[in-house]
Amino acid sequence: MGDAVRIQPASKIQPGMSDESPMSTALVTETVASQLTASGRSAVAVIGLNGDDAESCIRKCFKAVRDREYQPGQVRYGDWNVANLTTDRGSAIDAGESVVVTPLAANRFEIHAHGGIAAVQRILKSLTACGVRVVNAENFASLDSPSFIQRENEQVLQRCTTIRNAAIALDQCRTGLPAWLAKIESSQPNVEALASFAETALAFSHVGLKLSQPYRVVLAGPPNVGKSSLINRLVGFGRSITHNEAGTTRDVVDCDTVIAGLALRLSDTAGIRDGGGEIEREGIRRGALAVGQADLVLLVVDPDCLHELPRLRSDVLETAPDCSIIEVLNQADRLEGHQNMRSDLLPEQQTVALPTELLNSEQDGIGTLSTEITNTLRPEDPAAGIAIPVTTRQVQWLRELAGATSMDQAMRCLACLKDGTE
């Protein structure tokens, strides 16, 4: 028999109660499925399947490239072929999705498919035809996730918007802190080993905390250096207003994009200068607030104001002392008019952010800048199987654990980490 799950049986749903209602604690083994990743936002969707009939449903719907027994931890590639299935009304269900199926335990599977809404719905529809009940992700997470931290990790997975982040979040659901905590319960560690583990996990906290939210990248610099044109080139469409008059950008304009699998929120700010009207000064003030919340600042200048770089860098560091900065020389094609400029004083990142089809991302420096942005924000991803914190709450208790001086203190930290207690 497969894993027992706690769920309200379909036959016992009361009038007015839907799959969105809280589950009862009746012990049954109903087979249920749910989309675990964000709907319509991920390149790859993850669908969970759990219950006594899960494996039989997989065998009806999935044709693996290699026909062998299912074992936990496998990665099985094949086709989700449902041509032989029909709905309750007798109509055939459309066939055809290439998927990856991963057995997690007895009668517990994950189905990885194209993230499009139509593709996910076809798979869920075929499972429904097999007698599976579709529930929301929160209810599905409660089936076999006894600990608060496991549900927490699964909620982070549901909010991931890129395949790169979802892959890390999925690994944390399987082998991250919840799995490590389960091992601790059956061992006898000492306080030094626990503190050492906490420090190792915290080394990648900057990655875990950004799995479900975008990095904030703020473009700052003097007026009329092409910040708006540059952000348009990075995003790929004309989101910001561009005009060759100082003070055109009067407020912070946010644009969401994805570069190299990282979700970014690019913020175009008002040009930094003295003077200007009241509205422009307010825009500059709001730009300073955006810099203070940034993960990365692109400090943009042009050949005419290169001499201002030291002062501008000092201003940014005064507002955000720990923020990373990339200096960008925009309108670099105008350097020919500045022959006396020393090449060793020029920023390494040089761009030509013109709204033209004549320049590709290598000729205009946008490709190189994009790589520098992602490498600065995330130099490396954690290796598979490494446990990392994915919420600020987890970071807090790991820091407490890293500083623990007694087993009583360490065990309290572990309990709070696992169960969300204070």
Automatic annotation (TrEMBL):
Domain of life: Bacteria
Domain G: start-end pairs: 216-320
Region (Disordered): 1-22
InterPro entries for the chain: G_TrmE, GTP-bd, GTP-bd_TrmE_N, MnmE_dom2, P-loop_NTPase, Small_GTP-bd, TrmE/GcvT-like
Domain GTP-binding protein TrmE N-terminal: 31-138
SUPFAM superfamilies: Folate-binding domain, P-loop containing nucleoside triphosphate hydrolases
Stored Pfam families: MMR_HSR1, TrmE_N
Name of the featured protein: Small GTP-binding protein domain-containing protein
